Amino acid sequence: MKTPSLLKSKNGTNYLLPFILVASCFALWGFANDITHPMVKAFSKIFRMSVTDGTLVQVAFYGGYFAMALPAALFVNRFSYKSGIALGLGLYALGALMFIPASWTGSYYPFLIAYFILTCGLSFLETSANPYILSMGDPETATQRLNLAQAFNPIGSLMGMYAAIHFIQARLNPLSTDERALLGDAEFEAVKAADLSILSNTYAMLGCVILVVFVLMLLAKMPKGESAEKGNSAFRPTVARLFANSRYREGVIAQFFYVGAQTMCWTFIIQYGTRVFMAEGMPELQAEVLSQKFNIVAMALFCVSRFICTYLLKYLNPGKLLSILATVALVLTVGVISFQSRAGVYCLVAISACMSLMFPTIYGIALEGVGNDAKIGAAGLIMAILGGSVLPPLQARIIDMDVVFGMPAANLSFVLPLISFVVVAVFGLRTSRKRG
To answer: b/e per residue, 352-383, with b = 16+ CB within 10 A?
Structure first.
């Protein structure tokens, strides 16, 4: 079987098997992201907290990405992409296994520490894997190749959602938030301990799976990427070159807002859908489960759209396609804000089809032509994932207001994703014009 030119360098190096192994890591961090989104609602219920307090999960999760991105880039620059991926897998497994002692404490904050360590590992993975994929062959096909690898990400996300529904949410105590508020201290502690045990056991199983992949990565022989053959980059001159590059600077900003928008749309679809379905007379638990099913539909659309968009990139300028999809996404977001029925839920689900292209395309455009500087440049784009930590708590504060200007706060809160998609659309338009 002939190796696709997409995965073969000009000097004949075959990247097919390394690509498959690294692409599997994209599925693994997709799993971590989307088993986590529903945990905002789950932790809020388990610990009888507000939505805003529940979003500390996202603060810890994306905070780990931000904190470790630059150290990860320096580590990869000093050693290799393989070393960065292996260390990332090790930290990922450690964070997942820490859920067991966290559950023994019965406290919320040890779970946040576990999430932070887990995502320090994900930061290493993304900082290493994304530029490694870009370097696996001809630079002209780099963005298309990264979109193909990123297509494995929603597959892992779907698995994460499935695990969240069937291994966590379906097994948690069915008492509603209001019913839990009426429990005495002893009853509440018993229910909380049982729920935390269910949650920690699921993450412990995930940790064991990651350890297996960690061993496989250590044993595998991985060729250097095309840019890696040129050696390592000095830190300060590299940073100076990157920040002098307007395409890169604007890409980091666009990535911040995109990740924020993605996190908000996927995290708060449960709150949004639950409000809509409960207004129809549905019990809270049933409304939550149905909302999560719509979340799975959104991820399925995201997955299918990723493959379609990867194909379209053979014929369309990446910046132009990015601006078109961001514009459609912001129009759909207007629908999410305006409708107070299932139509709003349908618009929110449809946004995922538009988002599928965004992360890898922004990433590829921002690093286009930077050569070996991509090792350090990757850190800025991964640090931009901080948008997933900063923006959701702001949206949660709006949701906690219940009603704003006579509108349901859950609806009006989506003005933040609307602003984010405007930023992405402008970036796509500007870069498409620069390409001429």
So the answer is: bbbbbbbbbbbbbbbbbebbbbbbbbbbbbbb
Torsion of CA 349, 414, 37, 402, to 10 degrees: -120
Q: What is the pLDDT of residue 434?
A: 63
Helix (H) or strand (E) holding 23: helix 16-36
Amino acid at 90: G
| Residues contacting residue 284 through CB under 8 Å, at least 6 positions apart | 176, 177, 178, 274, 278
Residue among 159, 393, 145 nearest 267 (CA):
393
Could you say which DSSP state residue 234 is in? -
Indicate the burial class of 264 (C-beta count within 10 angstroms; 0-12, 13-18, 19 or more): buried
Handedness of CA 297, 117, 43, 332 (dihedral sign): negative
Using CA atoms, how far residue 80 sits from 99, 169, 263, 277, in Å, is: 30, 39, 30, 50
Cβ pair 100, 152 in contact under 8 A: no
Collect all residues with Cβ–Cβ distance below 8 Å to 150 and sequence separation of at least 6: 26, 306, 359, 360
Q: Say if CB 391 and CB 264 are below 8 A apart.
A: yes
| Selection from 383, 366, 336 nearest residue 431 by Cα | 366
Is the pLDDT at 187 greater than 80, yes or no? yes
Q: What whole-number distance in Å separates Cα of residue 90 and Cα of residue 87? A: 5
- Domain segments of the chain: what residues? 13-435
Cβ–Cβ under 8 Å, residues 306 and 151: yes
Q: Coil, strand or helix: which one is 240? A: helix
Contact between 254 and 429 under an 8 Å Cβ cutoff? The reply is no
pTM of the model: 0.74
The continuous run of DSSP H or E covering 218 comes out as: helix 185-219
How far is Cα of residue 33 from the mean position of the Cα atoms in its chain? Answer: 5
Q: Is 14 helix (H, G, I), strand (E, B) or coil?
A: strand
Q: Within a 10 A sphere around the Cβ of 19, how many other Cβ atoms? A: 21
How far apart CA 281 and CA 300 sit, in angstroms, is 28
The three state secondary structure string of 314-376 is: CCCCHHHHHHHHHHHHHHHHHHHHHCCCHHHHHHHHHHHHHHCCHHHHHHHHHCCCCHHHHHH
Give strand pairing partners of 14. Answer: 8
Q: Whats the size of the chain, residue-wise?
A: 436
Architecture of the domain defined by 13-435: Up-down Bundle (1.20)
Across all residues in the chain, what is the average pLDDT?
Answer: 83
pLDDT tens by residue, 54-113: 778 878 887 887 888 888 888 887 888 888 999 999 999 999 999 999 999 988 899 999
What are the φ and ψ backbone dihedral angles of 414, each rounded to 5 degrees? -80, 5
